[in-house]
Each structure stands twice: as structure tokens, then as C-alpha cells.
Write a structure and sequence with these properties.
Helix 8 links the parallel strand 6 and strand 7. It contains 12 helices and 8 strands. 43% of the residues lie in helices and 18% in strands. An 8-stranded mixed sheet has the order 1-2-4-3-5-8-6-7, sandwiched between helices. By secondary structure, it is α/β, with parallel strands linked by helices. The protein binds zinc ion.
Length: 361
């Protein structure tokens, strides 16, 4: 049977499978309820599973659904890890902490963002300081999300965005769109004006579970960037550090760096990696985003823009709304066995590499 069967169909099913697999693996479980509900009236939770000794000297952390709808992939990796029995490979003294659906609202509602339109992986700035500016985004905001979402408006706005890229270069274009913006609460890649629920919940989980764990490695699952089924290991913190060198040694020198410009991702503002390190000042914390490619970049971006338009100007409960939901789900979660197999094999390889590294400690 294909490992694809472990990948879920929707949030409620993902949660049920994760809880059942975790319980069968002997996990200690905690459910943290989100204040809002899902599209079927269902309660929403971030679920936390701990497998291993309470006084672990090292822990491998996996995080699903930082970007809501991308949680199909992360959830599938977490469930497969348990269902395939790989938790039995945990070295002595090393625990597994699986955080399922850190952004359950986005996951359940098939959105990349949280309930307040915040991109969780742009939300971890110091909100007490002046907000970072993104003049490129400001110039393009009305083009990225036009008032109407029709074939003609999509074509015209896409042409205008391409013209911006031709004039300012690819990096400036990517920073403008994907780098994070703090000026447009209803726009795309909005970093928020305060720490959102998922931000506070993540930091709280890290402090409660990991403060006394000396060595920590984190895999944060993402989708939508890179070649189909390829899993890029993205490190977003300064690269001139022992943590980065250790990660490279553990992972066959395959880690890419936004700092060094070796990643498909441009540098981003307010990323979660910073917060995970800061939450555990007494630990060595090694964080990577495992970013799986899906489709060509224009298709993914158009789906994200469509979803932003839908929630800003459109009707979710309409034929167009349903079509857009299908489009964004497909853009970030190819429902194909070959893709899921590639995803799983890469996830297993990376988890094993990190476990070997943590065990060396
Ligand atoms: Zn993502």
C-alpha cells in the first residue's frame, strides 16, 4: 500500500488520524483549543504530541500548518512518521514533539493565513518597534489584488507585475510580493500588527515543552516553492553560526540559506525561526523549513492572489468562491500519490538525519 494513504483529505480527518496515530504510538497528548470554529462548525485545535522521555536531552520538533492549507502536507508527514513506525527509531534520550496544525483556522478554512489574515511566518517581528516598510509592496498592492477577479483583470494585473519585475529585477519583485508587508491588513503576505493566536501558542508550546531540553532540531513543513515534489531545506537565520554548520553536517550540506542567497526563497521579515531560537535561550536550537515544490510559480501565486481577493472582495459561498478554494488547495497540495511519496521519502530522510545529529550530542 502506498504511503499516500496517510495524507489527509481535510482538517477534521487530519486531526482524527493524528490523534489516533499518536495515541497508538504512546504519545502524551495536549489539545489547545482555538477561539473560533471551522467551516462545518467544528472546534479547532492545535494538538501537541510528545513521544519519549520527559527529561529528554534532545528533541526533534515537527510543525504542520504554519501556513494553514499547507498543513495537508505537514500533517501527512507527521501521521506517516507514526503509522510507518519510525518513532521507534528515536535514539535513547531523544524525544519527538509533533505540533499538529499550529494555524488550525487557516487549515480548516483552506487559507494560507490565520483568522486575522496574518501570514504566520511574517508575524514574528518585534511589534514594540516601528513596523518595517515594504515600498515595493505598497507600489503593487492594488495590482496584486485588483477590485475585480476576472480573466481580463487577472491578465492585466499579471502583466503589470511582470513589468515591475522587468524594471526592478527578480529579487526586488520577490521581496515586494513575498517578503512580508505591514501596511495593508487585508492584503497578501501581511505580517500583522500584533502577535496572532498561532504565534503566541507556538512560543508557549516551545517554552513549556522545550525549555529544559539542551538540543533541539525543528522541521517546519511548507509547500508551494520549488520543483514538483522537491524538498528544499531552508535556513532563514544568519549563516555564519555553529548552528548552521551543524545542520549542514547533519544534512549532507543540503541546507540552503536566505542569508547567503542560496535558497529559492528571498529573505523574509518576521519569520518563525527567529522566535523559536529566542524562546529557548538555554538550548541549542536548529530550525529548518522543509519547503516542497508543487507547481510552477505563476500558478501558485495566482491561487494565493485569488484567495486574497475572495476574502477581501468576493463571496466564499458562491461558485467562484468554491472554485478558488479548490484552486488554492490544489496549488499547495497536489493530490497525487507520486507527489506524496516524494514528500514522505524526503521527510523521513531529513528526520533521520536530524535524529542522528541530535544523538551525537
Ligand atoms: Zn509556507
Amino acid at each position: 500500500m502506498s504511503v499516500a494513504r496517510h495524507f489527509p483529505g481535510e482538517y477534521r480527518q487530519a486531526r482524527a488520524s493524528f490523534l489516533a496515530s499518536s495515541a497508538a504510538a504512546g504519545a502524551r497528548l495536549e489539545a489547545i483549543q482555538h477561539p473560533l470554529r471551522g467551516p462545518h462548525g467544528e472546534q479547532l485545535f492545535t494538538d501537541v504530541a510528545w513521544i519519549g522521555p520527559a527529561d529528554a536531552r534532545a528533541a526533534l520538533v515537527t510543525i504542520a500548518a504554519t501556513h494553514g492549507v499547507e498543513g495537508y502536507c505537514g500533517s501527512g508527514c507527521q501521521i506517516a512518521w507514526l503509522e510507518e513506525g519510525l518513532h521507534k527509531e528515536l535514539p535513547p534520550g531523544v524525544a519527538l514533539l509533533a505540533i499538529h496544525a499550529i494555524n488550525p483556522h487557516g487549515y480548516a478554512w483552506t487559507r494560507r493565513v490565520t483568522e486575522d489574515n496574518v501570514d504566520l511566518n511574517r508575524n514574528f517581528i518585534d511589534h514594540a518597534r516601528p513596523l518595517p516598510a515594504n515600498p515595493g509592496y505598497e507600489a503593487l498592492a492594488d495590482t496584486i489584488t485588483p477590485r475585480e477577479w476576472t480573466e481580463a483583470s487577472i491578465a492585466a494585473s499579471t502583466r503589470a507585475m511582470e513589468a515591475y519585475k522587468a524594471k526592478h529585477g527578480d529579487l526586488a519583485y520577490r521581496v515586494a510580493i513575498f517578503g512580508g508587508q505591514f501596511c495593508d491588513p487585508h492584503g497578501i503576505f501581511f505580517g500583522g500588527h500584533a502577535p496572532t493566536w498561532s504565534n503566541r501558542t507556538l512560543v508557549d508550546i516551545f517554552r513549556r515543552y522545550l525549555s529544559k531540553v539542551p538540543r533541539v532540531a525543528v522541521v517546519d513543513y511548507h509547500t508551494g516553492l520549488g520543483p514538483y515534489g522537491h524538498g528544499e531545506l531552508i535556513y532563514g537565520l544568519p549563516a555564519n553560526t555553529d548552528n548552521f554548520k551543524r545542520l549542514q553536517a547533519w544534512l549532507n550540506n543540503e541546507v540552503t540559506s536566505t542569508d547567503l542567497g542560496t535558497s529559492a526563497s528571498q529573505p523574509i521579515l518576521g519569520m518563525n525561526q527567529t522566535a523559536m531560537v529566542e524562546a529557548l535561550p538555554k538550548s541549542q536550537v536548529h530550525v529548518i523549513a522543509l519547503e516542497y515544490g508543487t507547481w510552477e510559480p505563476p500558478a501558485v501565486l495566482t491561487a494565493l492572489r485569488a484567495d486574497n481577493w475572495l476574502h477581501k472582495h468576493g463571496e466564499i459561498d458562491s461558485a467562484q468562491g468554491r472554485a478558488i478554494k479548490k484552486e488554492i488547495r490544489h496549488a499547495l497540495y497536489p493530490d497525487a500519490d507520486d507527489w506524496k511519496k516524494l514528500v514522505w521519502e524526503r521527510a523521513a530522510e531529513i528526520n533521520r538525519g536530524l535524529l542522528r545529529g541530535l544523538a551525537q550530542g
